[in-house]
Amino acid sequence: MPNKKVLIAGATGLVGYAAMKHFATEPGCEVVALSRRRPAETHGARWLSLDLTDPAACAALAPEFAGVTHLVYAALYERPGLVAGWREDEQIRTNDQMLRNLFGPLERAAPGLRHVALLQGTKAYGVHVRPLTVPARENRSEMHEQPNFYWNQERFLGAQQKGKDWTWSILRPVLIVGDSVGSAMNVIPALGVYAAMMRRAGKTKLDYPGGVGRVAQAVDADLLARAIAWSGEAVAARNEIFNVTNGDVFVWPNVWPAIADALGFAPGEHVSLELDQEIRPHEAEWAEIRAAHGLTSGTLKEFVGLSFEYADYTMGFGRTEPGPAALVSTIKLMQAGFTEVMDTEAMFRKCFAEMQAKGLLPKP
User: Fold this and answer.
1) pTM for the whole thing?
2) Which one, 61, 73, 224, 263, has least CB within 10 Å?
3) Which domain holds residue 83?
């Protein structure tokens, strides 16, 4: 019998998919994955179709939650018009209700629940509305200033936990980069498609399409998954909040040569290009590329999701002056015992290579 049963909500998302892959490698761990659409690979997890916005569907699935010891809640609702949606009431209400819809049936079905891992991000520090106070620290969030579904979910968990044996951990990653299809915020498919379109147009150098760089941080999705797993067992992580990064910093124009090389190009010039407007509409051209290379990545909508818009946002399309540094402190995480790091340039190379190997992007 497994000594751990992990329920992953949002298994097709960037974080949930990485968590599903990781827990599948843990001895004695049973994994149940929830999402609306089936992941291309389940890595041994038992996948169940579930729309978390449907409370009746969540309640009906409760018998499958029996024996769950750990919840990784990585589900996320994002509106079309991604960035604008971050400040809208509907997005806040929907994400709040999704957690509630799942958690009630889960608690009733799984009295042995031990840990809940919840994901937030740097919007906890208001990065989407103002410059960060550098470095952003876990005790300096903007809970009472900027509306955000993070706070609704965090307050809900705190209220539900009273008198219970289970604990929680909240992880706040920065820019997450990894292997996922159809995600709202994954630059790898967006940049991979951009490069494929440029190759189709006869380019041998890959121009940088973003704005003037700012100092930022990223985190590899697989590293984040290992941090999530650590938080579910470490005493020092109980009822604590942690920033999570690769451990270094980067500037988009400076890392661009490595990205270009990973995609089979020499680095080009800085040529500002809004990917969401200039690349996303070209479904017919992408279909030709898929056919020519035998790709299995589906349409741009299926493969890239909302990530063209996210790539424009995170690379600062249209920015003509260096933006303020967006840096968080990971001292608390390291002092608590999770000390794994990764070179961000190596991360980009790894993630493109993974999608190329799986036939989702053309090989260089």
Assistant:
1) 0.95
2) 61
3) 4-176+220-244
